[in-house]
Amino acid sequence: MGARAQYVVVENGVRQRYGSHWAAGRLIVDLLPGPLAATRCFRSRRESGEWLDDVWCEGAALVDHDRRVLLWHAVVESWADYRAARAVLARTWAGWDVRFAHDGMGDLTHHLGLGRDLTRSPGWFETGEPSWWADPRGTEPSSVVSLRMPDASVRAWGSVGEPLQHLAVTPGLIDLLVASEDTPVPTDMPYGGVHFDPLARTVSLWAVQTVPGVHDWPLPGWEDWTLDFQGDDHTRQAELLPAGFPFPRPPLGPALRQLGDWLDVPPPDHAALLARAAAAPGPQGVVAAEVHPAALTPDEPTGPHPAELAELRTVLDALIAETAAG
Questions:
Q1: Do 176 and 221 touch, CB atoms closer than 8 A?
Q2: DSSP characters for 203-249?
Q3: Which 3 state secondary structure label does DSSP give 30?
Q4: Strand-by-strand arrangement of the 4-11 sheet
Q5: Would you call 201 helix, strand, or coil by DSSP?
Q6: Which residues pair with 69 in a beta bridge?
């Protein structure tokens, strides 16, 4: 499956939609030089008449010049990579309202006045029986789950589950948490966290990834609970965690330098590789896979102008220096 991306540009009241079968992994790099460069890049890709859903869309951006709003989401390798990207965007998109689209495609279509369910079928949010994805030995959990105990103390665990998975299994999860063994202290920041307070009937959630459905509260099973969605702000949960289970503080310098390295890497020609693979004969009896024609169209996006690239590198150098200075 390709890393499909969706782009929407709004300017002078006109909305245009573009797409790529391969560019979701480069979406952050395409955004970094600022609104003019990003808009040229997106408009150089193929126009699209379809809306991707949250399953197929691995990266998306909505650039609204009329309201000076950028909505975006993309898969990031770590919490530090996400924070580094946000730090750069805050400077290269100065004067814009830059938001991470936590609700995935729902945030984009909602901004356009089309509602949050345009790309979602009824009953799309799947729930299940209570399950607990503890990480008994790992020190790099996907999420951290914390629980206010009856004596007002707080316990915390690392989990291999994503933040929203813990809300898809109803409040029965809390009984599993109480009986769960402790997990190691994290050595790297998770992608998100969830805190349960049964007495206050409150769920708190933060994430540096999409959590589709977060604005459809109450989710099934949580009808008498209140959601405190904190966006990408982990500090409130950090204040609640036990003293012996703190969040680590990874430096942003390496992630900022990695962004600079990515600027020198040309987009890979996935289409050529797929075309050769699709044309190659397979073992006898194997049915050839169908390939969407658009997936074989090379991505040839317009890159930033030299002056835009130079300004971006100046921003990166400044942020790296500030990070090193503490």
A1: no
A2: EEEEESS--TTTTSPSPTT-TT-EEEE-TT--HHHHHHS-TTSPPP-
A3: helix
A4: 46-47, 14-20, 4-11, 57-64, 69-74, 97-100
A5: coil
A6: 64, 97
Cα(174)–Cα(171) distance, rounded to whole angstroms?
6
Enter the DSSP assignment of 134.
B
Copy the structure tokens of residue 100.
Answer: 């991470």
Do the Cβ atoms of 2 and 295 come closer than 8 Å? yes
256 token code pair? 């900022």
Burial group, residue 59, by CB count within 10 angstroms (0-12, 13-18, 19+): buried
| Tens digit of each residue's pLDDT (9 = 90 or more) over 125-149 | 888 888 898 888 899 999 999 999 9
| Residues 6 or more apart whose Cβ sits within 8 Å of residue 56 | 1, 4
Residue in this structure with the two tokens 């399953």, named with its chain if needed: 55
Q: What is the pLDDT of residues 35-69, one digit of tens each?
A: 999 999 999 999 998 999 999 999 999 999 999 99
Pairing of strands 143-148, 154-159: antiparallel
Position of tokens 């949250």?
A: 54
CA-CA distance, 72 to 105, in Å (whole number)?
Answer: 9
